[in-house]
Amino acid sequence: MADPPPSLTTPKTPNQQPLETPQPLPPRPPIDPALAPILSAYPIPDELNLNLMRGMNIVPEGEPNPFHYTAETVLSAHPNYTHQEHTIPGIDNNAIIISVFTPTTPTPTSENEKNGKEEALQQPQPQPRLHPTLYHIHGGAQISGSRFSGVSETLSLCPSPTILLTIEYRLAPETRAPGGAEDCFSGLVWLFAHASALGIDASRVVVYGVSGGGALAAVVALMARDRGVGVGVGGEGEGDVEGQGELGGRGRIKGVMLHTPMLDDRCDSVSDNQFWRQSPWSGLANSQAWDLVLGNGVRGSRGVTPYQAPARETVYEGLPPMYVDVAECEVFRDTAVRWAGELWRAGGTCELHVWPGVWHIFDMMEGRDVPVVNMSVAAKKNWLGRMMKAEEM
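^ Alpha/beta-hydrolase, sequence as received from the core. Prediction below:
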């Protein structure tokens, strides 16, 4: 394959914070001894490799790519779901693809159930049941991944039955921030506008974002508050997509889950320095990713807005309940903790977990006999179950 175009190469960063390794590296928390051998067995380069992140040049031509996810990948893991695809217009007249995974309704099998069904056909039929919904924003540092990335694992966290919508937002560097966030917000507006038709209970919508998708989920929460969308008390969820303000009273973001979120372009926290090198998703790679997201010479400057990097926000009032989940041994630790603190300072509510001895996206190893992994998965399931529970009248 030919070399990638200049836009896909790791950027140079003139007139910005230096990319040299802090000398010396500060002391840092130890890795869990049960997991340390995994890091030794799978070394990850410190510098960003966009081709690797996008799954390019990693398998011989003609062979299946294990990093290429599709709807079939999700359905094979969750055969009780169906998949539909929708295309909606974005803010720049771009096409945005949204995939909707809907749980199937079991058909009656026993004689009593069959008799009951026949009798029910002669009675007025109730309205179809509306389901809680997870609005999924995939990870990949805002520069890689697809709407199917991580969906199988995320769907396993949700109580049954849950509808999952996942969005194909535009990636950087081809589209700079806040383009991807605007796509995600357009998808949320569409969700509320078509909630009843999709079988969605518009009062039980949770926005979920992981890593780079966590940044976009945080921005979507800011946009929704600022633009009056998803801040109501529930209801039908129907309305004119262009009348965004009217949708605010017709549906609600019940909560936002930020899973190891990429929040701050300044890359100057203690945890950034501690894990600048020799770490999965190093501080160096993170700073290079932000350069692709924002453009050369922008990262760390005064002109960066909260819609580009959500940690630049100064007003945290009016945001929905949040769950913030981060590893102790990763660059995002301190900015995630600070985000939770700002929510509390503003009178908001946030469940914060800092998992000791582990690194970025460590809980992808679910199934291993490691207590911290199982605890982290259980905590997310517990919070989502509480958020998506129907409110008693």
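The two ends are 60 Å apart (CA to CA).
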